[in-house]
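ESCALATION

Customer reports they have been waiting on this structure for their group meeting. Please prioritize. Original submission:
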Amino acid sequence: MENNLENTSIMSLVQNPSQLADILKDPAKHGLDFYNGLSVKEKQYILFAAAAGLLGYAIYLGRQNT
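Update from on-call: job pushed to the front of the queue and completed.
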C-alpha cells in the first residue's frame, strides 16, 4: 500500500476499499499509519465509536449473566 497521507480520511475507506483490505491484512502497520493521518475530528469520531461499542458489549455481557 502506498502512503497517501494527503488523501487520508474515513470517507477514503469507502471510496477505496483496497485501502481497507490493506488495513485488515496488517492492522499494526497500515492501521496505525492510517489513524495517524486522520484529522483530530475524525480521530474523535473513531474513539467515540469504539467507546460506544465497548459500552454496548459491556451491557450485552452484563445481561447474559442474569
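Sent to customer with the following note: The mean pLDDT is 86.
Escalation resolved.
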